[in-house]
Amino acid sequence: AKGRGRARLEQFNDELHARAQKRVQIESDLRAALRASQLFVEYQPQVRLKDGRVVGVEALVRWRHPRHGIIPPGDFISVAEDCGLIIKVGRQVLQESCRQLAEWTKLMPGRTLAMTVNVSPRQIMEPAFVGELRQILADANIDPATLCLELTENVMMSATEEVARLLNEIRQLGVFIAIDDFGTEHSSLSRLRDMPAEVLKIDRSFIDGLSSEPGDTAIVSSILSLAYAMGKHTIAEGVEKREQAAMLLRMGCEVAQGYFFSRPVAAEQIVPMLSKALWQ
Ligand code: C2E
Ligand code: CA
Ligand code: CA
Ligand code: CA
């Protein structure tokens, strides 16, 4: 039994070692990727439920790796967070999506489209963040009110004064703030009241069970009434079926995104979607 225990421990150590090595490899490849412009951004349309029009897009980063092909963010964002490269990754994504938004805005004067960008805790805590954001907005020459930054509940609710000050500075620039994956982590309703966030994104896990799981339906409906009572907007994510979209519309959700409307796509593929309804 002792021998077996040792064998298991060795196997465990090997696995830890392999995982650590993999992270080191990702880190050094990512450094090269930043220099060689291997990161690119896809956009997923956000659809106004009452008429099916695209009112915004969410920017989602991808990595075109020279040997491993396209790597999704789930496979490298956490490494980037740990080693600090997220600051550069996040800056590139923000720059590229603001530049892209400016291009689309020129194509369709008189119509506003909102750009939503995910921001990591470490990225936003970087002292230079707000200054850079201001610069990026100025360089791209876009209306700050067309940009929305998405933060997860954890950052939003980590009640430090520093976070509160930061969020207020961002709001003062005119940029909007959304709480991502709402309902999955710890949210305190009293903190939500004081939070300078205008948008709640209802997590995919609750949308999955809409109509089939009474519990999920109840959660979605309470998030919607809470948001309404607090004067906040809602976006449902991960809508994969027509019946989910129909139900969200009936329940009073304004905007939704998900594979039912469109997967995240290259920028060029967004343009034709801007002039039609993605569902009715
Ligand atoms: P997220 O912000 O919650 O983004 C939604 C994820 O769900 C995206 O995965 C999207 O492609 C996927 N999705 C959209 N609609 C559906 C649907 O109907 N069904 C299902 N099953 N999935 C759907 P993706 O692109 O792999 O991104 C994963 C996560 O990586 C994001 O989750 C976000 O937390 C993070 N991420 C992506 N881009 C960035 C970035 O530029 N910066 C930072 N810090 N994080 C990012
Ligand atoms: Ca997001
Ligand atoms: Ca989300
Ligand atoms: Ca998520």
UniProtKB/TrEMBL annotation:
This is Bifunctional diguanylate cyclase/phosphodiesterase. Residues 23-278 form the EAL domain. It comes from the Bacteria. It comes from Bradyrhizobium jicamae.
